[in-house]
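Hi F.,

I've been meaning to write this up properly since the lab meeting, where we talked about keeping a consistent format for the predictions we share between groups. The idea is simple: the sequence comes first, exactly as it goes in, then the structure tokens exactly as they come out, then a line or two of notes. No screenshots and no reformatting. I'm using this chain as the first example so we have something concrete to point to.
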Amino acid sequence: METPWYRPRHLILQTAGGVGMVAGGVGYSFAKDKLETDILVGYVPKRYAGSTLSIATAKFMYTPFALPLGEKLRLHPLTVGPYLSYTHGTINDEERGQYTKDYYWFSSDTRVGFLAGSRLTYLRGTGATGRPRNVSAYYELGSNDLYLLSYYGNRRGLGIGDILTLALGLKADF
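Output, unedited:
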């Protein structure tokens, strides 16, 4: 039986990567699992950001191929794609009226970025629906519009490490 398109196909738990100290969500797979859309909600406690942040993120990823590493393991050496995130609880939420409306030249709550990464998948078999029940560990390197514009204007002061984010995560198919 085919799973309806609107039902998520996997659960995600991620740390860092510009989407929160910890983030969780669901994902959808298309085109024989080569295209994925993940929807995550992240959280950063007040003590780490000055104000409590909640971050909603949509990631759109393309994984062109997989390499079998034995009977139960598969390596997806390349995953690439854009993402969009919205942060509730930003700089301007800390103290209303502290900054004029046009003080910041950039949006303090919306980011557009890209990511590239890799994933190692353990093949657990299939469930009652016939869909795989795989578990994957992944990493993603990413950046966003603000980091890239800041780097462009300040290449002497910022290095590549200052504009990249690293995410580590787990993905469970169901």
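Notes:
Strands lie at 10-16, 22-30, 35-44, 53-62, 67-68, 73-88, 110-122, 135-144, 165-173.
Helices lie at 46-49, 91-94, 145-153, 160-163.

If this format works for you, I'll send the rest the same way.

G.
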